[in-house]
Amino acid sequence: MSRNPFVAADLPPVTLDVDVLVGRYADRPGPTGEPAAVTALLAANGIARAAVASLRAALFDVRSGNDEVAALAGPTVLPVGTLDLRDPLGAEREVVRLAGQGVRAVRLFPDEQHVEPDFPSVRHVARRAAEAGLVILAGGDVRRYWRPLRGATVIFLDTHFYHLGDFVVAARDEPGFHTSTRLLNSPDALETIAEHVGVERLLYGSRTPFYEAAVPRLRLARSALGPDAVAAVAGGNARRILGLTE
Amino acid sequence: MIIDVHAHWGPWFFSMEVGAVVTNLAVMDRYGIDLAVVSATEAVIYDPTTGNRAMARMLETTDRLLGYLTINPRRLDDAERDLRELLPTGRFVGVKIHTDYTGSPPSSPQTRAALELAAAHDLPALVHTWDRSPLDLAAAVADIPGLRAIAGHMGANGWRHAVEAANSVDRLWLEPCFSHTEAGRFAAVAAAVDPHRLLFGTDATLIDPAAAYGAVLAADLEPELAERVAWRNAADLFRLERA
Fold first, then answer.
1. Which of B11, B43, B67, B155 has the fewest CB atoms found within 10 Å of its own CB?
2. Cα–Cα distance measured from residue A184 to residue A188, given in angstroms and rounded to the nearest whole number
3. In chain B, what residues touch A31 (CB-CB under 8 Å)?
4. Where in the numbering of this chain does the Amidohydrolase-related domain appear (chain B) (predicted)?
C-alpha cells in the first residue's frame, strides 16, 4: 500500500505574516488574489494574521487600492499602505493620509514600478514614511536598496540567501533593518542571520497567494532555532516592530 | 523512502558554510531523505578533473550518497578520461552538465556532444535548465538515441516549457528544485505530465530541501504519485536495487 512520504506535522503556527498581497498582476499568469481566496489560503496554511497590501495600489491606483485593504481590517488582516514610487508627490500626500488612518506600515514595490534605487523618489518617500513613524516593507534587491533606506525601520521582503552576506553587513550598521525569511531557504541562512545580527531581525513572510507558504514555515520548523526564537520569527518580531500589543 | 536526484557536495562562494559531507547528511536527515545523488561543486563551477576525483574519495565514506560525474562540455577529452577512470568505482550513476557555469546551453554543439557521451555510457544526464531551455534539452533527447535526461529545476520560471518538453519525448524527466517557490508550480506540472517522469530534487546543500519538499508537500499528491516522485521513478531511472 502506498504512503505519501512528504509529510510535515511540525509546521509552526504563524501569528503574523509580513508579506501577503491581494489583487493580481496583469503581466503574468497566476492567482487573481481575491481577498476571500487569500484569507482562505492563510487559514489553510496556519497563518493567523497577515500584513496585507494591495496590488491595485501598487500597479494602478494608490488611493483606491489602499482603501481596498483598509476595508479588510480585522483579526486576520492588518492593512498595509502602498506608496507609488513613480509619483513621489502623490506619495507625500498618501503618507499623511495613511498615518492619519492609523496605518502602521507602508510597502514599496520598486521592481513592479520599474524604479531604481538611485531615483530621488526612493530616498524621499522613505524619509517621509519614516518621519511619519511608518515601518517600510521593501521589495527589491537588498544589495541596492539598503542605501536609500538607511535610518528607517525596514523589512526587506526579497532578501535572497545569495545576498545574505550583504544584508548582514548592512544590518550591522542599521539597527532598523530586518528581513523576511521567504527566500532565505539555504541550509544555514536563518541560523547565520541569527548568529550575526540576532534572531529579532528575522520575520516570517510568505507572499501568499503567489508563493508556497509552506516553504518558509517548513524551513523555520527544521531550523536550529529554539522554540522561543521560532515563535518570534513567526510573528513576535513583527508585532514588536509594528507596535501591536494585542 | 526519499531519493534526492539533484544535490551537491562541496562549498559554495556565497556566505554559507555547507561544504562538509556531514552537512549533506544532516540536511538529508532534516527531511527524511535517505539517498542523494550529488555532484561536486568544484567540478560544476571550476574544474571537473579535480572535483570529480575529490568526490570519488568522499563517496567511499558514506553509502547515502551516489555521484554524478560532472562533464564540462568544453573539456570532453577530460570527461572521457574521467568516465574511464572513475566509473569502475561503481559510485557514479549519472553525469551532471551545468549549462551556465560552462557557458554551454543545451542547444550548443558541445553540450550535444556531452549528451552523446552520456548516452554512449548509458548514464542519465542531469542538465541545468532555465526558462525555455527544457525545450532545447527535449530536442537533444529526441535526436540522441538512448539518451535519458533530467531537466534540472524543470526550467525554473520556465516550468510551463518543461511540461511541453516532457510531453514531447519519452526519455526526459523533471525535478523541481528552485529557490523561488511559485505557488502551485509543482502541482501544475504533476497534473500535466506522465507520472513516471517526475523526480524529487533539492539542490542541497546550496538550497535547503525545504524549498522542494515544501513545494511537493503543498501539491498534496495522491500517495501512489507521491511515492513515484519520492523514490520509485528515481530508482527505476538510476537502476538502483530496491532494499
1. B11
2. 9
3. 183
4. 3-240
